[in-house]
Design goal:
six-stranded mixed beta sheet; mainly beta; 10 helices
């Protein structure tokens, strides 16, 4: 029985407890001890899949029709998100995880005291830790000693909770405005005045033109009081950071039409005896003649201000402010990215692991040529010592007691948090222990994993190249039929100022283990390759990204890796726009899937939230360009099937975008389907919707392009103009 072609899904799921872990030891070298975690409740060891049989003993079956144990249910179970880490007064790790099986609810969890015990949920069941500041959130909690302050998702109020008592109830710190209209993010404790300094986004007057400030929230007394503005007047703020004495504080600010990675400024304010800001100094980013985007200010224990910026070289490198002369000096220079775009609050790419009169030792990560590296910078010597750990992709770093924690992944490790212990000289990693994993059971599917190959392909600009990760079809039991090449699914990432990363992602393995080839493209405009590469997209969104995706697909066809007659494209948000634009303006792909994608650039400019409301000024250009690059205005140029997925509470790309393109394509007579999800915003968090989206894309492409039967039992939705 077919479902409706416009399927509005409202589903409820039961909650699940946090998985726990115990450890066993495995040595990968004489110097580094790797400790992997497995679920504590699973006392038996999973049988590892046997090594792949010889090709002659594999079952020959059409690409795309292979059976795989990596089901959509498995993928959704491995879709836990990580929202940050911290360490309590006892040195135990605290992390924020979102759980698809609890409708995406985000919960603070604490590392158990003993390895055989389970992690402990800190957040009571009636709360969820998530901020909606700038829609994308981040920086939703802050831990100091035995106290945590967090943003509650339902009402967006700040709450204070004791970590020393198991039954401690959160206490509200900010007023109830009758709804989630005021959000907070990226806060720090101010012990000098017993207050909390945080970014506040106020949507009480307008949800599209909100007011962002840095405010103080009182922590003394039992009465909830209004927060007080500490810094205001700019369009946006981030990274309020206090020095050790509470006498100076740094912050990042920027104004329309810039995004924080285009141009931003680093300021330092001096706090008076009354607690307000008296004197202000702009440290970085004020020169109108140069492009610069400072980010991640942080004070050492000696009161020195460090930060990351991309001045001169175009790469985000580590710098230090000399207060006496108001100069900025380089700490370490490399053609690599030591940070990333500020899409979410709370980025933390480096930590001081040792700080004394002579020098600072700084644990940091950087990204170069599609790979992340972890190292220790000596700010006096200007040297960098690389650490050998299994992660090839690294995000945030959190300082622990005689250790630090790294959020990362690799081509065989899913998103994880690892504890890294150094030797006495702080130059080598001697222990690497996985504390948390988004998918602790995934290694049992290892024989089905397709390992990414970083490819560099020619673009339409002579002499210019772009990058992508190619995943060939891989299955321990199957091989393709003779003389057949696999279908290709090309993914265009969101942002568009973002980056595809070659790490273990079961949603990709879902495709490759069934016989699809998959490619994740870092088109011109992506991050991770410096400002020059990122700015290829300025005034050319809808051109460079589309051309690069088409060039990548053509390159793989010409290389003999994929079937040129079975090329499909998918993408979410900005990637959904690239998908629709590629299908409208080029004839490379035979079908596409747009997840909360943009069809009308003018509609997006008028309706999206404040953070991105001027984003397109730099990406698109003139009013005529807005019209010419909007797929909705050129429905006559579409010629292939499309499936659309949309959250009904999406404020970044409102539902009218998907509905408008759906109605137009349906009227034209093209095969089209629209799936709408109640209770979902920009990106799908509920397990049932993650499953449904993945399965329906698979069967849609199989029916209309693949020319094979899928092995899974999937009931397809009704496709207009086909069924």
């Amino acid at each position: 029985m077919a479902l409706s072609s416009i399927a509005t899904l409202t589903r409820f799921s039961t909650s699940c407890s946090s998985s726990s872990s115990s450890s066993h030891f495995h040595y990968i070298s004489k110097r580094l001890r790797l400790i992997a975690t497995v679920p504590a409740k699973t006392h038996h060891r999973h049988k590892m899949m046997s090594s792949s049989p010889p090709e002659s003993k594999k079952i020959a079956a059409p690409f795309g029709s292979w059976k795989s144990p990596i089901t959509a249910d498995v993928v959704s179970g491995a879709s836990k998100r990580l929202g940050g880490t911290a360490v309590d007064s006892n040195g135990r790790l605290i992390w924020l995880e979102s759980r698809p099986l609890e409708s995406g609810r985000a919960v603070l969890v604490r590392e158990p005291e003993r390895p055989e015990e389970e992690p402990v949920d800190i957040t009571p069941k009636e709360f969820a830790v998530r901020t909606l500041a700038q829609e994308y959130g981040g920086g939703a909690f802050h831990v100091s000693g035995d106290t945590v302050i967090f943003s509650n998702y339902k009402d967006q109020r700040l709450y204070k909770q004791s970590l020393s008592s198991k039954d401690s109830s959160p206490v509200p710190l900010t007023p109830d405005y009758g709804g989630p209209v005021v959000s907070y993010a990226d806060g720090v404790f101010d012990a000098r005045f017993n207050r909390f300094i945080t970014v506040r986004e106020d949507c009480r007057e307008s949800s599209i033109n909100s007011i962002t400030t840095i405010v103080t929230v009182r922590l003394d007394g039992n009465d909830v009081q209004e927060s007080e503005t500490l810094v205001g007047g700019s369009d946006f703020y981030a990274f309020p950071r206090l020095d050790p004495k509470g006498e100076r504080f740094a912050w990042i600010e920027w104004c329309h039409p810039n995004m924080p990675w285009d141009r931003s400024e680093l300021w330092v304010g001096y706090i008076s005896e009354k607690g307000d800001v008296t004197k202000r100094v702009c440290v970085s980013g004020s020169d109108p003649a140069s492009k610069e985007s400072p980010i991640e200010p942080k004070w050492s224990s000696k009161g020195e201000l460090f930060f990351i910026t991309d001045r001169k070289s175009g790469f985000w490198n580590l710098y230090k402010w000399v207060e006496s002369t108001n100069e900025v000096i380089s700490v370490y220079s490399l053609d690599a990215e030591f940070s990333k775009p500020l899409w979410v609050f709370g980025l933390n790419s480096y930590e001081f692991i040792e700080s004394h009169e002579q020098k600072n030792l700084i644990a940091c990560s950087y990204r170069q040529n599609g790979k992340s590296y972890l190292g220790i910078v000596d700010d006096v010597q200007g040297s960098l010592s690389l650490l050998n750990i299994p992660f090839t992709d690294i995000d945030n770093i959190t300082l622990g007691i005689n250790c630090f924690y790294v959020e990362g992944a690799s081509e065989v490790h899913p998103l994880s948090v690892a504890k890294v212990t150094l030797d006495d000289q702080k130059s080598k990693a001697v222990e690497f222990k996985i504390i948390w994993s988004s998918s602790p059971d995934c290694l049992k599917y290892e024989s089905y994993f397709s390992l990414p190959e970083l490819i560099e392909f020619p673009t339409e600009v002579p002499g210019q190249t772009a990058f992508a990760y190619f995943y060939p079809p891989t299955n321990s039991s199957y091989q393709g039929t003779q003389d057949e090449k696999p279908p290709l699914l090309l993914k265009s990432h969101g942002g568009p100022t973002a980056e595809a990363r070659g790490v273990l992602n079961l949603s990709i393995q879902y495709w490759t283990s069934r016989g699809w080839a998959f490619v994740d493209v870092n088109y011109g405009g992506s991050t991770g390759y410096g400002r020059e590469y990122r700015e290829r997209l300025l005034k050319k969104w809808g051109i460079v990204d589309v051309n690069d995706c088409c060039s990548c697909a053509s390159y793989l066809v010409e290389s003999g890796k994929v079937d040129g007659k079975r090329l499909c494209i998918t993408g979410g948000s900005a990637g959904g726009y690239t998908t629709l634009a590629a299908l409208a303006f080029r004839d490379t792909f035979k079908a596409g899937a747009s997840l909360y994608g943009v069809a009308d650039l003018n509609m997006l400019r008028a309706e999206t939230h404040k953070f991105e409301s001027r984003y397109m000024d730099n990406l698109v250009g003139s009013d005529q360009d807005y019209f010419d690059r909007s797929p909705i205005n050129f429905v006559d140029k579409f010629s292939c099937p499309i499936i659309l997925f949309q959250g009904l509470e999406d404020k970044v790309v409102p539902p009218d975008q998907a509905r408008t393109i759906y109605r137009a394509l349906k009227e034209k007579g093209l095969p089209v389907a629209l799936v709408e999800y109640e209770g979902e915003q920009h990106g799908f968090r509920k397990a049932e919707n993650i499953i449904f989206t993945l399965e329906q894309q698979m069967v849609f492409f199989a029916r209309l392009v693949g020319h094979f039967e899928v092995a899974d039992d999937i009931t397809p939705i009704k496709i207009d103009n086909l069924d």
